[in-house]
């Protein structure tokens, strides 16, 4: 039988330490910070890494008093060098778990963070994933395809876009008169529940991995 993954060995005596990586507005980071402040998530955001100098998430991090490292992806010649710098920040912050939160740059995940990097995607993978499928593009594609249901997916990150083992999914309807913005807001509501729930499951050792199948124990 697959053994539970141990992501935060000092939990629950110590909160699980999170590194949040972002490229845009930082709404997912804001949600995690609010859950922590409300006491519904026993966690601490120990660092934020932004890959875009214009990301509003940088300002959000400042407002929240969170240490934020700005590492423009374009400043690095390749993915390997960029990833090494990112994980140097993550290690220095003592992060147990890396949470991709609208982070658009593909990473090379080092061995010491294998199965300790997760992502949230605004669709029901494996549909509507892959390079270029982020934000508004996803919701436009869902509407154009005539889907009646969409949602969000939390999954382990791996060497390619949106293909890691799925941890959790939540659904919501696609309405006949939906706009991408309206649909995005409905999906984000589900994201705000799915991400902290998954982080709790990982912190509590309730996740097992059998090949490409991740199971979350009740």
Widest sheet: strand ordering: 3-2-1-4-5-6-7
Average pLDDT, all residues: 97
Structural class assignment:
alpha/beta
Strand content: 15-25%
Roughly how much helix do the residues carry, as a percent range?
25-40%
Shape: globular
- Main beta-sheet strand count, sense and barrel state: 7 strands, mixed
Terminus-to-terminus distance: 16 Å
Order of helices and strands: EHEHEHEEHEEHEE
* Poorly predicted sequence stretches spanning 5 or more consecutive residues: none
Number of helices: 5
Strand tally is 9
> Cα-atom Rg, whole angstroms?
17 Å
Structure description:
- With 218 residues, this protein is of the alpha/beta class.
- The chain is 31% helix and 23% strand.
- It contains five helices and nine strands, in the order βαβαβαββαββαββ.
- Helix 1 runs parallel beside helix 2, helix 1 packs across helix 5 and helix 4 packs across helix 5.
- The longest helix has 24 residues.
- The radius of gyration is 17 Å and the shape is globular.
- 39% of the residues are buried.
- The model has no long low-confidence stretch (mean pLDDT 97).
Detail the topology: elements first, then pairings.
Blueprint lengths: L15 E7 L4 H12 L4 E8 L5 H9 L3 E3 L8 H14 L4 E4 L16 E5 L14 H9 L4 E8 L9 E8 L6 H24 L3 E4 L2 E4 L2
Parallel strand pairs: 1-2, 1-4, 2-3, 4-5
Antiparallel strand pairs: 5-6, 6-7, 8-9
Helix pairs in contact: 1-2, 1-5, 4-5
């Amino acid at each position: 039988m697959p053994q539970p993954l141990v992501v935060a060995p000092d939990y629950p005596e110590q909160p699980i330490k999170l590194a949040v990586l972002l490229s845009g507005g930082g709404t997912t980071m804001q949600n995690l910070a609010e859950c922590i402040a409300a006491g519904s998530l026993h966690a601490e955001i120990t660092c934020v890494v932004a890959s875009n100098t214009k990301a509003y998430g940088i300002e959000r991090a400042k407002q929240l008093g969170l240490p934020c490292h700005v590492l423009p992806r374009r400043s690095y010649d390749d993915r390997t060098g960029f990833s090494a710098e990112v994980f140097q920040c993550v290690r220095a912050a003592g992060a147990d778990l890396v949470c991709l939160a609208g982070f658009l740059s593909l990473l090379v995940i080092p061995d010491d963070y294998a199965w300790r990097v997760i992502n949230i995607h605004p669709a029901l993978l494996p549909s509507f994933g892959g390079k270029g499928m982020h934000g508004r593009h996803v919701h436009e594609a869902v509407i154009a395809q005539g889907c009646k249901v969409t949602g969000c997916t939390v999954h382990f990150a791996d060497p390619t876009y949106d293909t890691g083992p799925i941890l959790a999914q939540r659904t919501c309807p696609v309405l006949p008169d939906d706009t991408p913005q309206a649909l995005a807001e409905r999906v984000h509501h589900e994201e705000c529940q799915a991400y902290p729930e998954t982080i709790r499951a990982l912190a509590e050792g309730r996740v097992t991995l059998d090949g490409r199948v991740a199971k979350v124990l009740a």
